[in-house]
Amino acid sequence: xxxxxxxxxYADGRVVMAWLWRAYLRPWLPWIGVALALMVVxxxxxxxLSYMVKPMFDEVFAQGGDRAAAGWIxxxxxxxxxxxxxxxxxxxxxxxxxxxxxxxxxxxxxVGHLLxxxxxxxxxxxxxxxxxxxxxxxxxxxxxxxSVLTAFGRDMxxxxxxxxxxISIDWVWTLIAVAGVPVLLLPIMGLQRWVRRTTRAARVAAxxxxxxxxEIFHGVSTIKxxxxxxxxxxxxxxxxxxxxxAQIRSGAGQAGIPALMxxxxxxxxxxxxxxxxxQIMEGSATIGEFMSFFTAIALVFDPxxxxxxxxxxxxxxxxxLERIYGIFQERPHxxxxxxxxxLSELEQPADIRLVDVHFAxxxxxxxxxxxxxxxxxxxxxxxxxxxxxxxxxxxLLTRLGDPQEGRITIGGVDIRxxxxxxxxxxxxxxSQEAALFDETxxxxxxxxxxxxxxxxxxxxxxxxxxSDFLARMPEGLDAxxxxxxxxxxxxxxxxxxxxxxxxRDAPVLLMDEPTSALDARSEAVVQxxxxxxxxxxxxxxxxxxxxxxxxxxxxxxxxxxxxVDEGTHDELLAREGIYAGxxxxxxxxxxxxx
Length: 594
What we know:
Radius of gyration: 35 Å
Largest sheet: 6 strands, mixed
Strand content: 5-15%
Number of domains: 3
Structural class: alpha/beta
Helix content: 55-70%
């Protein structure tokens, strides 16, 4: 699969649970064993308590009862409650601890795995959906194993011990009390399938909600400026309505299982009271026996309901586990070769060549036989209308994706023959949207080269004109850039990004519309810093504003995924092609005024 969607193929539940056990639960086996032992104590104490009801009524509360036995029975009852309390606290503490550790490990590994996937994969899987899988699904999924273990450790033992007490008193009474249980099997199985289906729909809806929130919070300024608050609030409410409906259906299915058991329990007690009551009246059974039996059977339905409810919890959590498992089954297609070639094998000067490159996102073609050469040490500009494929060229150069056909070489070596680390180490990138993180300015600049010394950092600050605005910030380099660099202006963000590129000191510089969103004053400062950065490097620049590439050594004109022309600024103007048309659109008014 290249991406994930609500129609994903889901794995068998046994396969998913086996994977969860091997990868995440088995290391905690000693602690799980201790928790299970404590659950056994907790469950058995319930049976012991019901068993002591018989001597309490027949030997203590009966007329002329044994006073000495009263003290011992009272102590035994208290001991049962104390054992239950201590065992319950211990097993719950262990299970919560292990559950949180497992959830953290799942989230850590999932994020690590996601970061290995291809860049193109993220274009069809929105951030909100992935956030929901990492956070929401893991927290839901890790509840299943603790619920199952608790059910089979505590509730199953309690059920067995209580049934043993009941059978030891009167097996006929026991049959009457539980006669309706087999009738529950088919309805419960139907409810289980319903819960799994509706929970899966709820998780998909939750991912949609997370995606919508991500878009709202990142685009809040655009929403406000276009007076679209009501529209986006309504779209969120619509998604929330679908999620709520799916959650209610899932909850109804889970609630239906214990409800069925209550009805069955009521029928069992009806028969028991009629039949057992007649035996007591006839003298063939004692009140102590009946009360002990009644207590055991009354307590039986409590763990039985929890065991039945586990089926619903299991189906609910399994839907999340399947989504998590699906993520881990995704594999990157862009990989380092088994035996990568060394950078020392690159021809010098290391020209960059694209030869008949074809690329498509799914069924949508983007590049159609692109070929051109970017000479080492020169500036090559890519120009053309939006959607011409310029940014895709950059993605393929850095192997965020691989072409379906054609070759890309650096210094005569196919980039697929280099390790990803070596290849990407050749590039510094400055784009129109500076990718800054919610960390300090220092951390953002050191992002590509954290080991850089203070002198190198200072040179980068001066070269990118970051020092110009740092003096006005009380915390200087330790000031927070804010989420996505929101604490800085557009020009400041670009200068931080340029400082990062200067510090990285890579031989190839990729610039994607680096000044398109800046005012004239900021553009002048940033353009000067970019020109200084480009000195002595192989530079490829994407530009819609042709004023920034007039002096490029070569301009490659792209249209609808193809290279339609190339040459210098003057050569392209003389040919009266697409470039000349773009030029006239941008500068005709300016030239007329001058």
